[in-house]
Automatic annotation (TrEMBL), chain A:
GO biological process per UniProt: tRNA (guanine-N7)-methylation
WD repeat extents: 64-102, 197-242
Protein name: tRNA (guanine-N(7)-)-methyltransferase non-catalytic subunit
One Pfam family this sequence matches: WD40
InterPro entries: Trm82, WD40/YVTN_repeat-like_dom_sf, WD40_repeat_CS, WD40_repeat_dom_sf, WD40_rpt
Chief subcellular location: nucleus
GO molecular function (one): methyltransferase activity
Keywords: Methyltransferase, Nucleus, Repeat, Transferase, tRNA processing, WD repeat
Keyword Electron transport: no
UniProt pathway: tRNA modification; N(7)-methylguanine-tRNA biosynthesis
UniProtKB/TrEMBL annotation, chain B:
Protein name: tRNA (guanine-N(7)-)-methyltransferase
GO cellular component: nucleus; tRNA methyltransferase complex
Entry keyword Cell wall biogenesis/degradation: no
Biological role stated in the UniProt entry: Catalyzes the formation of N(7)-methylguanine at position 46 (m7G46) in tRNA.
Subcellular location field: Nucleus
Stored PROSITE patterns: SAM_MT_TRMB (PS51625)
Domain of life: Eukaryota
NCBIfam families: tRNA (guanosine(46)-N7)-methyltransferase TrmB
Binding site for S-adenosyl-L-methionine: 86, 109-110, 142-143, 162, 240-242
Length: 430, 273
C-alpha cells in the first residue's frame, strides 16, 4: 500500500507539467490595499481609492514569468516584496505601486521578508541559502544580493524578522526553526545563531510573531506538517506551548491506513497582540481561531469558523488592527480551472474573545466586503465562477503539491536497495 | 583518494575486536540526500543511556501495557563535550577516550557500515578493558544537517574534522564539511574558548578550510605555543587510520586549529548579546 502511494506521488510530480502553486494573499498593515498572487500574476486592489491598482515597473527588470511563491508587506506598508519560481525578487513601493528593484536570484525563491526599518529585503531559496539586499537605490551592487547564512540543503519555507528587529527567523523542511542575530551590516553575513527552535516532527510551513507592550521582544508561532501550532521563546529557543490544531478542528489524524496523513498547517496570521491567531489547515473548509495568552504563555482554540461551502484557504492575511481576516484559495497550473482564485473575508474577529454572542466571527457577504464586487472582480480575476468540484480539485492539488515538495518520503529497505541499483552513475557497471 | 578507506590487512583479530574487512563500505555518502535514519527531535531527546550506559540509566518509563516511552531529559549531570565529525573507523575517538577519561565524546559518521564497525569496536574495548572506554560512543547521522539536533548552544569544547572528503570539483564545494555557512552552526555548538581541529592531506582542501576559519568572525587561530603544547594536535595525524596511511606514504598533512571566540563590537556592527 505504501509503495503504490509513493509511486503515485512521484508520477504526479513528474507528469503534471508545471508545478501547482497556491494562491497567496497579503493585506497592507493599515488595510490600505490587498494583494493576491496567483501563478505569475500579481493583483492589487487599492481600498483607499476603491479601485484596482495598476503595477508599474520602474526597475527595468523583467516581469514575473513563473509562479510567485512569497509575497509580503513591510511593517509600515511602504514596501512590498514578491518572489518565486522565476528566481526574481521584486521590491515595490505601495504609494504609488511601482517596482523599484528587481534582484535576480540564483535559485528559485521560497520565502521573502522585509526588515522592520524597511532597509533590507531578505529572501531564501530552495537550496536553503538566505540572501539580503538593500532597498536603497544607491546600494553599490544594485542587482545582486549577498548570501548571509544557510540551512544546509533544505528548502526554507518561511522567513520572518522579530518585532524588535534583532533576529531573523527561518524555518525549513527539516523540522528546524533557526533564530539568527541580524547584524547592523548584514552584507558580511549573519554568523551568530541565537537559538534553534526544535520540537516539530514534520516540516515547518509557516511562522508569525506576536508581541505586546509588556513583551516587546515578541513570541514566535509556527505551523507545521505535523498538524500543530507551537509557541516559542526565540531568545532561548524554548518551546512554550503546543496546540494540536488538527485534532482540535476535528480532522482525523489517522485515516486507518497510513500514519502520514496529518493535515498540514498552511498559514498562520496573527493580530499584533496575539489575541487572535487565525490558522489555515489542509482539508478544513474554514479557519481555526486561536488565542495566545502571552503572560501565561499558552495557546488555546477559541473557535473553528466553518465557511459553509467548499473553501479551503491557501493563504491568510490581516491588517494590524485585525478587524477582518482575508482568505484566498486557488492554485495555478491546474488543468480544470487555470489561475482560479476565490477571496473570502471573515469579520468580527476582535469580539470573539469576549462572550457576547451577537458578534460571532462570520463570513462577510460578497457585497459587504470592503471594495465590494469591484475588489472581487480584480482579485479573483476571470474564471471565478467555478463549480464545487473544481474547488475540491484545487484543495487536493495544493495539498499534493505541498506533500510532494516538503514531506520526506519513507522507503522500505527493499525499495531503497532497488533505487540504489537504478542509480545513473552506476549504470556502466551493470 | 584520501577518503578511500578500504583496508586490506587483517588487523585486531585478537580480543574479539571487529575486523574491518567485514565492514567495507562505499567511500562516499551523499550529504545532500534525504536521510532515512532516525534523528532526535532535539538535544534533550538524545538517549544518553544507549551511548553511555555506565553513566546513565535508561530515560524511559514503562506504562501498564508494557509500552515504554522515552522521556526527554532536561538536566543531565554530564553532557557530551567532544564531537568527532566524520569519525571514520574511530581511531581518534579511541585515543581521546583514554586521554580524557572523564569527558563524554561522540563520533558522527554517515556511512552505516563504518558506524557499525566503530560501535562494535568500542563495545569490544569496553569488554576487554573493564572501566575504560565508557565515555566514547558513535552515532550514524548526517552532521551537516543535524548537528543542532544533537548538541545545545555552547555544549561542545572540542570538534574534530579529520581528513574530510575533499570534493575537488567546484560544483561540489557545497558538500564540503567545512564551509562558511556550516561554520556558523559549529560556532553555535562550541562554547566560547572551544577548539575546532581540522587536518587533511589535500593541500587545496587545507587552504580552503584555513581560509573559511580565518574569514569567520567567530574563530581565531590558536597561538604557535598553544599548538605545540596541545597533546590533541599530535593525535590528529597519528591516531587515525587515515593519518597513519598518509604517514606510511610519507605524505604531507595540513592542519588548522582555531578557537571559538565571542563577538565584540566591531566595525561590522555586530554586537554581543
Amino acid at each position: 500500500m505504501e509503495e503504490t502511494m509513493i509511486e503515485e506521488g512521484e508520477s504526479n510530480r513528474e507528469g503534471g507539467g508545471g508545478e501547482v502553486s497556491p494562491a497567496l494573499i497579503a493585506v497592507h498593515p493599515l488595510e490600505k490595499s490587498v494583494a493576491v498572487a496567483i501563478g505569475s500574476e500579481l493583483r492589487v486592489f487599492d481600498l483607499i481609492e476603491d479601485c484596482s491598482s495598476s503595477l508599474v515597473d520602474g526597475s527595468g527588470g523583467p516581469l514575473h514569468s513563473d509562479s510567485i511563491r512569497a509575497i509580503c508587506f513591510g511593517a509600515n506598508g511602504r514596501l512590498f516584496a514578491s518572489a518565486g519560481d522565476d528566481k526574481l525578487v521584486k521590491v515595490w513601493t505601495t504609494n504609488p505601486w511601482q517596482c523599484v528593484r528587481t534582484v535576480i536570484a540564483e535559485k528559485r525563491v521560497s520565502a521573502v521578508a522585509i526588515s522592520h526599518d524597511g532597509l533590507f529585503v531578505s529572501f531564501a531559496d530552495k537550496f536553503g541559502v538566505v540572501w539580503v539586499t538593500g532597498t536603497d537605490g544607491d546600494h553599490e551592487i544594485k542587482e545582486k544580493a549577498s548570501p548571509i547564512f544557510g540551512h544546509y540543503c533544505s528548502i526554507i519555507t518561511s522567513l520572518e524578522f522579530s518585532p524588535d528587529g534583532r533576529f531573523i527567523v527561518s524555518a525549513d523542511r527539516d523540522f528546524k526553526i533557526r533564530v539568527t542575530v541580524f547584524p547592523k551590516n548584514p552584507f558580511s553575513g549573519a554568523h551568530e545563531i541565537q537559538s534553534f527552535c526544535l520540537g516539530h516532527t514534520e516540516f515547518v510551513s509557516c511562522l508569525s510573531f506576536v508581541c505586546t507592550q509588556e513583551h516587546p521582544q515578541g513570541f514566535l508561532l509556527s505551523g507545521s506538517g505535523d498538524s500543530t501550532v507551537r509557541l516559542w521563546d526565540v531568545t532561548a529557543g524554548s518551546l512554550l506551548d503546543t496546540c494540536e490544531v488538527g485534532s482540535k478542528a476535528g480532522l482525523s489524524e489517522c485515516d486507518g491506513e497510513e500514519e502520514n496523513v496529518y493535515s498540514a498547517i498552511t498559514d498562520i496570521c496573527t493580530s499584533a497582540d496575539g489575541s487572535v491567531v487565525a490558522v489555515g489547515i489542509q482539508s478544513l473548509h474554514g479557519v481555526v481561531l486561536l488565542s495566545c495568552d502571552l503572560s501565561a504563555r499558552t495557546l488555546s482554540v477559541i473557535k473553528v469558523v466553518s465557511m459553509g461551502e467548499t473553501f479551503v484557504p491557501t493563504s491568510l492575511g490581516m491588517s494590524s488592527s485585525a478587524e477582518r481576516l482575508w482568505m484566498v484559495t486557488g492554485a495555478s497550473n491546474l488543468p480544470v480551472c487555470p489561475s482560479f482564485t476565490h477571496v473570502r473575508v471573515i469579520s468580527g474577529l476582535k469580539k470573539c474573545g469576549s462572550d457576547s454572542s451577537d458578534h460571532e466571527p462570520a463570513v462577510v457577504e460578497e457585497n459587504e466586503i470592503p471594495g465590494g464586487i469591484k475588489l472581487l472582480e480584480k482579485l479573483q480575476g476571470s474564471g471565478s465562477n467555478a463549480k464545487e468540484d473544481d474547488l475540491l480539485a484545487v484543495a487536493e492539488a495544493v495539498k499534493a503539491a505541498m506533500r510532494n515538495q516538503l514531506i520526506k518520503r519513507q522507503y522500505s529497505v527493499e525499495k531503497r536497495e532497488l533505487r540504489k541499483k537504478r542509480r545513473n552513475d552506476r549504470k556502466i557497471k551493470r | 583518494m584520501s577518503e578511500n578507506k578500504k583496508v586490506k590487512t587483517k588487523a585486531n583479530n585478537s580480543n574479539g575486536l571487529p575486523r574491518k574487512r567485514f565492514y567495507r563500505a562505499r567511500a562516499h555518502s551523499n550529504p545532500l540526500s534525504d536521510s532515512h535514519f532516525p534523528v532526535p527531535i532535539a538535544p534533550s531527546h538524545v538517549d544518553y543511556s544507549l551511548h553511555y550506559p555506565h553513566y546513565f540509566h535508561p530515560d524511559t518509563t514503562t506504562d501498564d501495557n508494557g509500552v515504554s516511552t522515552f522521556i526527554p531529559c532536561k538536566t543531565r549531570s554530564k553532557k557530551i563535550q567532544f564531537a568527532d565529525i566524520g569519525c571514520g573507523f574511530g581511531g581518534l575517538l579511541i585515543s581521546l577516550s583514554t586521554l580524557f577519561p572523564e569527558t563524554l565524546m561522540i563520533g558522527m559518521e554517515i556511512r552505516d557500515k563504518v558506524t557499525e564497525y566503530v560501535k562494535e569496536r568500542i563495545l569490544a574495548l569496553r569488554e576487554a578493558n573493564p572501566g575504560q572506554y565508557q565515555n566514547a560512543s558513535v552515532v550514524r547521522t548526517n552532521s551537516m544537517k543535524y548537528i543542532p539536533n544533537y548538541f545545545e548552544k555552547g555544549q561542545l569544547s572540542k570538534m574534530f574534522f579529520l581528513f574530510p572528503d575533499p570534493h575537488f570539483k567546484e560544483k561540489n564545494h557545497r558538500r564540503r564539511v567545512i564551509s562558511p555557512h556550516l561554520l556558523d552552526e559549529y560556532a553555535y555548538t562550541l562554547q566560547v574558548g572551544g577548539i575546532i581541529y581540522t587536518i587533511t592531506d589535500v593541500e587545496e582542501l587545507g587552504e580552503w578550510m584555513k581560509d573559511c576559519l580565518e574569514d569567520h568572525p567567530l574563530f581565531e587561530a590558536i597561538s604557535k605555543e598553544e599548538f605545540a603544547a596541545d597533546p590533541v594536535v599530535k593525535l590528529l595525524s597519528s591516531a587515525t587510520e587515515e593519518g597513519q596511511k598518509v604517514a606510511r606514504n610519507d605524505g604531507q598533512t595540513f592542519t588548522a586549529v582555531y578557537r571559538r571566540i565571542s563577538l565584540v563590537a566591531t566595525d561590522l556592527g555586530i554586537h554581543e548579546v
